[in-house]
Amino acid sequence: MAAHKILVIDDSRVIRNMxxxxxxxxxxxxMEAADGIKGLEMIQQQKPWMIMLDFLLPRMSGFEVYExxxxxxxxxxxxxxxxxxxxEEVTSKIPEPFEDKHLVFVEKPFEQxxxxxxxxxxxxxxxxxxxLSVIPTSPSVSEPTPLPSDDLLKRIQELxxxxxxxxxxxxxxxxxxxxxxxxxxxxxx
Length: 189
What we know:
One of its GO terms (biological process) is phosphorelay signal transduction system. InterPro entries: Bact_response_regulator, CheY-like_superfamily, Sig_transdc_resp-reg_receiver. Helix content is 49%, strand content 14%. By secondary structure, the chain is an alpha/beta fold. Strands 2-1-3-4-5 form a five-stranded parallel beta sheet, sandwiched between helices. α2 runs parallel beside α3.
């Protein structure tokens, strides 16, 4: 199965690396842009499968990138996850509920479980957009971005199950480790 391209537009290298580390490389190819202008260029050139967009960006804000996407019938179909550590700044420009705008909001910092849930939700919301034939298009618009496959949804569900099992295993190992430390402390007294 080919990797799905996810474009992460964020001025924080930490966030870009965190997303890269949270997603399995066999299923996702993470592309990066550190500002809004570079991000918009990459969206237009690469036509990523999904976009993760920080709201506060240098050179061109995430809101301006969002507005540009909304003006292009093809690009607005790409699943979108909007990220910010300041939700109030997002809601001052894009009122809730975000689902009505066919986007998902995640508050930074986020965990892998939240990211996977946001990806699934963004895929579902993008499928609810009206077909391109209903949206007036210009002759220069190329083929639409393919919608996510059921195989990918199944794979994400498998990954969530594995994550839950690993979290349980980690919790058990932490308890065992603590018991071992307590035992050693007791013997050293």
